[in-house]
UniProtKB/TrEMBL annotation:
Designated name of the protein: Uncharacterized protein
Lineage, uppermost ranks: unclassified sequences, metagenomes, ecological metagenomes
Organism: marine sediment metagenome
């Protein structure tokens, strides 16, 4: 497994979580 790709997917998951939390806070 490419280490770089793994790190990118981890960051994407984190960003999605943050976006979801911000949306809940806004609504």
């Amino acid at each position: 497994v490419d280490f770089h790709i793994t790190k990118l997917s981890e960051r994407l998951d984190t960003l999605r979580e943050i976006l979801a939390i911000e949306r809940k806070a806004t609504q």
